[in-house]
Specification:
It is built from nine helices and seven strands, in the order βαβαβαβαβααβαααβ. It is an alpha/beta fold. Helix 1 crosses helix 9, helix 3 packs parallel to helix 4 and helix 4 packs parallel to helix 6.
Length: about 250
């Protein structure tokens, strides 16, 4: 199995892409530590993952709160001898014209989508560097690569997450720590469910494969970067968008 004997931290694991990633990692043999602000949802996911005899535990985490991140780190390292993989998946946004955004909205978007991965990566990367082994995966968005109508600040935060991935990858490479980024296109998650139907229909129309992504398809890309199949891959950005954003 791809991740046998590894311990993986997954943020945003109570739903959507985070839950799908937890399922993929657990099936691949990892001991998964699920983090999310939604304690009820996270506990339920962990319980389902344990049913086939897999190792899954939930620890509450608010990636926007440095105290919560530190408490999560302490608890995670108490439950596992070492954390081998960090999958930064927690994120949030809302489709709204920029001129209607409030400063509080800006801060929430940036805290969740950019500073959250920064804080969680910082919490776990030092031991990885010391033992010269580890994988960090950041889930950003194709909005950060090409922009997205009605998501200007979200696009900026996700663009920052992409740039952070590349910068951290350069710093961590000599310590044999891989840092990579997955950029989903429109994906059938609870977050997208709040988007008006006409916008979702427009997403489908402009996607060459003529459908939305499923969370498990994004999780497959995260699993690739977290596995030894990507042992010589770092600082890379992989779009999983059905051809919506093709780079030349």
């Amino acid at each position: 199995m791809l991740l046998e004997g590894r311990t993986a931290v997954i943020t945003g694991a109570a739903s959507g892409i985070g839950r799908a990633t937890a399922e993929k990692f657990a099936a691949a043999g990892a001991h998964v530590l699920l983090g999310d602000i939604d304690a009820e949802g996270g506990e339920a996911v962990a319980a389902r993952l344990r049913e086939p005899g897999r190792r899954a535990e939930f620890i509450r985490l608010d990636v926007t709160d440095l105290g919560s991140v530190e408490a999560f780190r302490r608890e995670a390292t108490a439950r596992a001898p070492q954390v081998d993989i960090v999958a930064n998946i927690a994120g949030w946004g809302r489709t709204e014209p920029f001129v209607k955004n409030t400063p509080d909205f800006w801060r929430k978007v940036v805290d969740l989508n950019l500073l959250g991965p920064v804080a969680v990566s910082r919490a776990f990367i030092e031991p990885m560097m010391e033992r010269k082994s580890g994988k960090i995966v950041i889930v950003a968005s194709d909005a950060g690569r090409v922009g997205s109508l009605g998501e200007s600040v979200y696009s900026g935060a996700k663009g920052g997450a992409i740039a952070f991935t590349k910068g951290l990858a350069r710093e961590a490479a000599r310590f044999n720590v891989n840092v990579n980024c997955v950029c989903p296109g429109p994906t059938d998650t609870p977050l997208l469910a709040a988007v008006p139907d006409k916008i979702k229909e427009a997403f489908v129309r402009v996607t060459p494969m003529q459908r939305l992504a499923q969370p498990a398809e994004i999780a497959d890309a995260v699993l690739f970067f977290a596995s030894d199949m990507a042992s010589f891959v770092t600082g890379q950005v992989l779009s999983v968008s059905g051809g919506l954003t093709m780079a030349g």
